């Protein structure tokens, strides 16, 4: 059981500023191995910024980030590169390279980091493609010709190319229809169970939060106000949190009454 | 994750073949080597510390796809992962076969024909629009027209003047060197005047405007198309052509002849300057000679091309812009194409004009 509680991400006293606009101040957050964490909060609370700081795409103005138990501020370039390979990031619009096919997109990180032969490379990329539920014929399509749902799945495939233990997703279900979003959520859960992943997602989709995550980190007042399961979160009496979930709670209550 | 790194190994002992270590992505290269060199071996026991999907894929090559035949020693999770990966691996689907040379040529020809048709259709729409404008002059968006006059006319004056001047100077210089060997210095006037008036002034002008304004038209319209602004105009009961294309068309039709006259003047000015410095031909002599030998028809021959070039540039630029589909990269693509196409068409039409005028004896 000790294995289960390894700390994957730890943020200590993080501060982020854009000019005079202070987004985070003294922000602390701890994410354990195997957790499925949603970062939620009103707009402008710096959810996506926080995600890109965890992904090492942006440095916080002060504070310490520990990934897999090691502080990244003291790391050399090579160590940082190794850390980066343990993190998969799915961007909101997919951010697939438009001049490459889906398969080539997935192959790119594997090829650049592992010197392996072409056939195995393609095999591994196909494996990732099918793991996310994409149809086989999508392999040779270009990102422009993919539908929204397929685009997101392809983006997850590329993020998983190197089998990272940590997967970050920026608004994974935004822009999908409810059925597509539900299918995407199911896929995330399957991947989480099968691949031993830790998930961190920024999302506004309350259905996603209920189905996918087991922990919700609520950003407000420039820090993480609370990290707890959604069932507790919706009953929280903190005014900011209450305001955010006010409608949602009503919705749930009605649904539960119906059941 | 501070534990010791354990590279994957395959070892043979009295108990048989055993696999150990981490079968994970960072060791893919070693894993591939192991699997290549040991395809014949029957693996008897597995004691793998870590396994991930990429590692599983390689492991399956060694131990086969049949779960019942898998060697002992796999943990429950590892077995689950292997089963999942076994289910999901599959060959890369065949790519669409590349077309043969003849078919490719045919496709290319059809593409050109289709494109020519699009261009003509667009030109037709433009002319219909101009006619409807004559009937309803209030359709014209005066402010947008003035905008075009300033941005694509006035603001282009310095660069066109400078380039035409330099062009005239270069031609006078090169031509003058040849003429001077025959002592025919004075003929530099005819050389520079005819070349600038009939050909180069309209051409350089059109090329600069195509690069400066045609590309801007295409980029602007393509961006608006991406943002669905064109559709928004339609939904508000507006004719997108009247807003976006007509002012550009009229504006360039007005501005191009003016710019062409400007580049004629500065081009001949450049020639005159070089004639003075290089060939000892004073500006007074130059102008006297110019008045005596250069027929006004040459001026009109050059000038008449200007509105035609303007039509081409607007037609191509706006059409490329409005045809844009897809993402942001379409904007760049369409912009490039508009410049290439309009310069291409301008030069073709210029050649056609040459033939026409030669036939007419102008």
Characterize the structure shown.
- The complex is a heterodimer of chains A (259) and B (362).
- With 259 residues, chain A is α/β, with parallel strands linked by helices.
- Chain A has a domain at 96-163.
- Helix content of chain A is 40%, strand content 24%.
- Chain A is built from nine helices and ten strands.
- Chain A has helices at residues 47-54, 77-84, 102-113, 118-131, 148-159, 178-195, 206-212, 230-233, 239-258, and strands at 7-18, 21-32, 36-40, 62-67, 70-71, 87-90, 166-170, 198-202, 215-220, 223-228.
- A six-stranded mixed beta sheet of chain A has the order 6-7-8-3-9-10.
- In chain A, helix 3 packs across helix 4 (118-131) and helix 3 (102-113) runs parallel beside helix 5.
- Chain A starts with 6 loop residues before the first strand and ends with a helix.
- In chain A, 44% of the residues are buried.
- By secondary structure, chain B is mostly helical.
- Chain B has two domains: 9-88, no CATH class; 138-360, no CATH class.
- In chain B, 73% of the residues lie in helices and 6% in strands.
- Chain B contains twelve helices and three strands; from the N terminus they run E-E-H-E-H-H-H-H-H-H-H-H-H-H-H.
- Chain B has a three-stranded mixed beta sheet.
- The radius of gyration of chain B is 35 Å and the shape is elongated.
- Chain B starts with 8 loop residues before the first strand and ends with a helix.
- The model of chain B has no long low-confidence stretch (mean pLDDT 88).
List the helices and strands and how they pair.
The complex is a heterodimer of chains A (259) and B (362).
Chain A lengths: L6 E12 L2 E12 L3 E5 L6 H8 L7 E6 L2 E2 L5 H8 L2 E4 L11 H12 L4 H14 L16 H12 L6 E5 L7 H18 L2 E5 L3 H7 L2 E6 L2 E6 L1 H4 L5 H20 L1
Parallel strand pairs in A: 3-8, 3-9, 6-7, 7-8
Antiparallel strand pairs in A: 1-2, 1-4, 4-5, 9-10
Chain B lengths: L8 E5 L2 E8 L4 H10 L5 E9 L1 H11 L12 H13 L12 H35 L6 H12 L3 H25 L6 H39 L2 H7 L4 H40 L3 H11 L2 H28 L4 H33 L2
Parallel strand pairs in B: 2-3
Antiparallel strand pairs in B: 1-2
Helix pairs in contact in B: 1-2, 2-3, 5-9, 6-7, 6-9, 7-9, 7-11, 7-12, 9-11, 11-12
């Amino acid at each position: 059981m000790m294995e289960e509680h390894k700390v994957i991400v730890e943020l200590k006293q993080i501060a982020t500023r854009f000019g005079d606009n202070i987004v985070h101040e003294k922000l602390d957050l701890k994410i354990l191995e195997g957790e499925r964490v949603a970062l939620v909060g009103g707009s402008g609370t710096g959810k996506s910024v926080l995600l890109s700081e965890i992904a090492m795409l942006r440095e916080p103005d002060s504070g310490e980030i520990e990934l897999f138990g090691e502080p990244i501020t003291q790391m050399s370039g090579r160590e940082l590169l190794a850390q980066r390979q343990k993190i998969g990031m799915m961007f909101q619009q997919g951010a697939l390279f438009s001049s490459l096919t889906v398969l080539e997109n997935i192959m790119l990180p594997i090829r650049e980091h592992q010197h392996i032969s072409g056939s195995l490379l393609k095999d591994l990329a196909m494996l990732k493609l099918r793991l996310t539920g994409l149809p086989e014929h999508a392999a040779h399509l270009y990102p422009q010709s993919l539908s929204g749902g397929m685009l997101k799945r392809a983006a997850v495939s590329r993020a998983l190319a190197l089998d990272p233990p940590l997967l970050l997703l920026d608004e994974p279900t935004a822009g999908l229809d409810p059925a597509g979003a539900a299918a995407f959520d199911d896929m995330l859960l399957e991947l989480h169970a099968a691949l031993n992943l830790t998930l961190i997602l920024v999302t506004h989709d309350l259905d996603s939060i209920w189905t996918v995550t087991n922990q919700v980190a609520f950003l407000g007042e420039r820090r993480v106000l609370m990290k707890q399961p959604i069932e507790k979160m919706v009953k929280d009496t903190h005014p900011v949190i209450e305001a955010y979930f006010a409608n949602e709670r009503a919705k749930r209550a009605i649904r539960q009454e119906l059941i | 994750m501070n534990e010791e790194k354990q590279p994957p190994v395959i070892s043979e002992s009295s108990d048989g073949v055993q696999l150990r270590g981490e079968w994970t992505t960072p060791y893919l290269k070693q894993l591939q080597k192991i699997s290549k060199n040991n395809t014949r071996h029957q693996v008897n026991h597995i004691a793998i510390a870590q396994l991930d999907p990429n590692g599983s894929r390689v492991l399956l090559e060694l131990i086969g796809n049949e779960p019942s035949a898998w060697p002992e020693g796999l943990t429950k999770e590892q077995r689950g992962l292997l089963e999942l990966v076994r289910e999901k691996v599959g060959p890369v689907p065949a790519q669409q076969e590349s077309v043969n040379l003849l078919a490719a040529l045919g496709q290319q020809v059809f593409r050109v024909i289709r494109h020519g048709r699009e261009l003509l259709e667009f030109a037709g729409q433009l002319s219909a629009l101009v006619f409807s404008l004559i009937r309803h002059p209030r359709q014209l968006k005066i402010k947008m027209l003035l905008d075009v006059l300033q941005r694509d006319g006035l603001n282009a004056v310095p660069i066109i003047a400078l380039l035409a001047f330099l062009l005239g100077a270069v031609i006078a210089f090169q031509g003058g060197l040849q003429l001077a060997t025959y002592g025919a210095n004075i003929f530099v006037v005819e050389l520079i005047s005819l070349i600038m008036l009939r050909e180069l002034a309209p051409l350089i002008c059109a090329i600069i405007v195509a690069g400066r304004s045609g590309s801007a038209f295409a980029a602007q319209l393509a961006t608006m198309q991406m943002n669905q602004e064109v559709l928004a105009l339609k939904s508000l009961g507006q004719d997108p052509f009247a807003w976006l294309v007509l002012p550009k068309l009229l504006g360039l039709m007005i501005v191009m002849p003016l710019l062409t006259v400007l580049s004629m003047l500065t081009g001949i000015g450049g020639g005159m300057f070089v004639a003075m410095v290089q060939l000892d031909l004073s500006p007074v002599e130059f102008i006297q000679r110019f008045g005596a030998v250069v027929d006004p028809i040459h001026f009109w021959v050059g000038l008449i091309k200007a509105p035609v070039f303007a039509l081409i540039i607007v037609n191509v630029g706006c059409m490329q812009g409005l045809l844009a589909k897809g993402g942001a990269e379409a904007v760049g693509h369409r912009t490039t194409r508009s410049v290439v196409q309009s310069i291409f068409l301008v030069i073709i039409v210029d050649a056609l004009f040459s033939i026409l005028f030669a036939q007419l004896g102008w």
